């Protein structure tokens, strides 16, 4: 069953085409990660799906209805990228205020404990740290026992411990049957949480698949070596030099190793390994930029 759907959705802001004919289905029980560089269109897509904005063309659906209709949003929890909390209210009061909108909210203490905020119940939100405010904003998405939560960069600004605590809360919600759509700049976050990854670049869906499939679609391997100078080698999509090591990214690592050997150059400490999602993601978006540069889209 599809809970959120974008069907050939485009969204323009003046002359900027933020989304270009995007299709996306989020099905019940899925945990979907939305990845893309700055300005790719992730927040725009999220805002359309949760009814905060209207598409320029195409259709969006939430629980089978129009996301702008409050009835469609009843089983939805959202944390937008930026949230404002009333500075003089205490944490517990903010939770009570939001809870009052739902028929069967999670009890205040249970919610605060789940998100590691139990000790802060009596603190005014204006005095919280940036990370504490962010955790509270994310916790509020869960208060009404939603069927689906949409989290736009939920862990931005959190330290490692707080991020992991939030991952646990998201995992627990998903394990109980909840559906999650989250965007993140932390690629290891999507790798750790999501079963399915949707990569967005320049307003288009570049890839929509499992984490493993995305790696194999990209098919890039990393060949690392210590070398003084390298000739230009066919098939290398990206080269990095880090701490005296050279990392070459190529779809056919076996051929690259053969080319290295036949080139006669001196190298040592050769290592070949699959790419991380981050590297796969960089390869997809870099290839997309190259395409865009080579073939400008028609006006
Ligand atoms: N309200 C707006 N007015 C004008 N342009 C906008 C507006 N919102 C977004 N854009 C533009 O639309 C494009 C997509 O932006 P969007 O915020 O959806 O990207 P994003 O992938 O969420 O980026 P980030 O990771 O930086 O949050 C960008 O070029 C952005 O400048």
Automatic annotation (TrEMBL):
<dbReference type="InterPro" id="IPR003593">
    <property type="entry name" value="AAA+_ATPase"/>
</dbReference>
<keyword id="KW-0547">Nucleotide-binding</keyword>
<dbReference type="GO" id="GO:0005886">
    <property type="term" value="C:plasma membrane"/>
</dbReference>
<keyword id="KW-0813">Transport</keyword>
<dbReference type="GO" id="GO:0005524">
    <property type="term" value="F:ATP binding"/>
</dbReference>
<dbReference type="InterPro" id="IPR003439">
    <property type="entry name" value="ABC_transporter-like_ATP-bd"/>
</dbReference>
<protein>
    <submittedName>
        <fullName>ABC transporter ATP-binding protein</fullName>
    </submittedName>
</protein>
<dbReference type="GO" id="GO:0046677">
    <property type="term" value="P:response to antibiotic"/>
</dbReference>
<keyword id="KW-0067">ATP-binding</keyword>
<dbReference type="Pfam" id="PF00005">
    <property type="entry name" value="ABC_tran"/>
</dbReference>
<keyword id="KW-0046">Antibiotic resistance</keyword>
<dbReference type="InterPro" id="IPR027417">
    <property type="entry name" value="P-loop_NTPase"/>
</dbReference>
<dbReference type="InterPro" id="IPR017871">
    <property type="entry name" value="ABC_transporter-like_CS"/>
</dbReference>
<feature type="domain" description="ABC transporter">
    <location>
        <begin position="4"/>
        <end position="227"/>
    </location>
</feature>
<dbReference type="GO" id="GO:0016887">
    <property type="term" value="F:ATP hydrolysis activity"/>
</dbReference>
<dbReference type="InterPro" id="IPR050763">
    <property type="entry name" value="ABC_transporter_ATP-binding"/>
</dbReference>
């Amino acid at each position: 069953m599809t809970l959120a759907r974008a069907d050939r959705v485009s969204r323009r802001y003046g002359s900027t085409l933020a989304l270009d004919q995007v299709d996306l289905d989020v099905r019940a029980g899925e945990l979907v990660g939305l990845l893309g560089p700055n300005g790719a269109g992730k927040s725009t897509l999220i805002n359309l799906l949760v009814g905060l904005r209207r598409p320029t063309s195409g259709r969006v659906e939430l629980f089978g209805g129009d996301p702008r209709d409050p009835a469609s949003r009843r089983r939805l929890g959202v944390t937008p990228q930026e949230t404002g909390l009333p500075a003089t209210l205490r944490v517990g009061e903010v939770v009570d205020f939001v809870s009052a909108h739902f028929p069967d909210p999670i009890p205040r203490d249970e919610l605060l404990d789940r998100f590691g905020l139990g000790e802060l119940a009596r603190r005014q939100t204006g005095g919280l740290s940036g990370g504490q405010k962010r955790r509270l904003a994310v916790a509020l998405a869960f208060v009404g026992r939603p069927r689906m939560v949409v989290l736009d960069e939920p862990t931005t600004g959190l330290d490692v411990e707080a991020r992991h605590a939030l991952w646990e809360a998201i995992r627990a919600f998903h394990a109980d049957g909840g559906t999650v759509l989250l965007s993140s700049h932390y690629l290891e976050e999507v790798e750790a949480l999501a079963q399915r990854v949707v990569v967005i670049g320049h307003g288009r869906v570049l890839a929509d698949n499992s984490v493993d499939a995305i790696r194999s679609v990209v098919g890039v391997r990393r060949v690392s070596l210590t070398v003084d100078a390298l000739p230009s080698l066919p098939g290398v999509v990206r080269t990095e030099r880090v701490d005296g090591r050279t990392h070459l990214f190529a779809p056919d690592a076996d051929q690259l190793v053969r080319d290295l050997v036949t080139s006669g150059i001196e190298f040592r400490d050769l290592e070949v390994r699959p790419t991380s999602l981050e590297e796969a993601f960089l390869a997809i978006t870099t290839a997309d930029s190259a395409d865009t540069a080579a073939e400008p889209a028609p006006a």
